[in-house]
Amino acid sequence: MIRLVSLVSLRYVRTRRRSGGSPAALLSVLGVALGVTTLTVVLGVMNGFQLGFIESIVEISSYHLQAVQTAGEAGVPGGTAAAPLPDIAARIGAVPGVRAVVPFAERQALVQGPYSRPRPAVIRAVPPDLAARDPAQAARLTLVEGSLDLASADAVVIGAELAAWLGAGAGDTVTFSWLGWTDDGRPRARRAALRVTGVYRCGYYDYDAGLVFAALAGPAAEGLPVSWGVKLADRFADRRALPAVSAALAGSGYAAESWRAYNRSFFDALLVEKLLMLALVGIIFVVVGFNTYHAQRRTVLERTEDIAVLKALGVPPRQLQYVFVSEGLVVGLAGAAAGTALGLLLAGNINAVFAGVEAAVNALLALAQRIGGGDLGGFAIFSPTSFYLVEVPSRVLPREAFFVAFLAVASCTFAAYAASRAVSRFRPAEVLRHE
Fold first, then answer.
1. Which of 98, 197, 321, 331 falls 20 to 30 Å from 27 in CA-CA distance?
2. Cα separation, 206 vs 228, whole angstroms
3. Do 419 and 405 form a contact (C-beta atoms < 8 A)?
4. pLDDT band at residue 338 under the 50/70/90 scheme
5. What are the start-end ranges of the H helices in 151-237?
6. DSSP collapsed to 3 states, 294-330
7. Which pLDDT belongs to residue 84?
């Protein structure tokens, strides 16, 4: 059967090549390639943005696992103030797969510069050797000014957007205010003037504008329970590591939680966004499928006499159907291969593509300005005044690229199968009688 299908398919291909090819088949291949290219680039850029957000949250804020105290809440009467316990770090560090263990404490505060209004911020108190304990977190913090120096009790490192709001830089002093508690449980306003030793930028606006790193031994951490951030060699192995870490913390007054429990609604929203975008852009494959269907339908009608002769010779209708299904499969494979290659090329050089478009548009604007006069300004696809990014991130996941290619091939193959069903309705005697 395979030999017969291949023989007939090759004969049809040779016939089309002699006659100059089939425009419908070429258009089908181009349509599939365009759809695969578009979906690959869109998913690559979306992955770049989403994974950038997720990695900023996981590497900087939530860690892969957290060990939090269960005896009370931080900063309220009844909360348990605790210093970092060396045996806690040793217990967690002994769990297989644990890469880093970092003690920290957090509180909300108002921060004010010498010439600015107060602005809310989250103070995260960390040890002075944060960079040595967690190199991955330090790598996410690109220092714009100063250094990640928290050796002094009054040292703080602030985000670039917060520094711009406060009008402060490395070496300046900023004032923090927060609500504290007296020994007898009464609320009391606390203030501390701390010295900025560094300014960082991580690319996530909420952190650049509202996350402050302070010294764990400084006044900002006074009276706060200490939690432990845990980094794993593979953050997706948290489900295996969580029971082991929880067992290691038994009897210590700490409970372990996974990064999946933090910002769950945000991660779910990103997933829904990707699925909706995949569905919307994937509609192009429905159009390509209809195009392939009508192209194969036309081919079946053009080959009516050949089909009648083959059926009269005893060839089963299903084998004849496979001839046209194989043609749809070839269309899908050719379009998917070309589209995947072009999509990967564009996704990997997306910033160069945008730069080329901007250069071309600005050249046209300059020409129009020279001819007609006036100031038309400049053109930027992602202007820094409107978008908080330096460049467009792009990251294509192999499994998603394969899924897009598979979807294209499947749509063409199914469309060709639907069109080939007309073969079974042909009656050789009726067709040959009219010839």
1. 321
2. 22
3. no
4. very high
5. 160-166, 205-210
6. HHHHHHHHHCHHHHHHHHHCCCCHHHHHHHHHHHHHH
7. 47
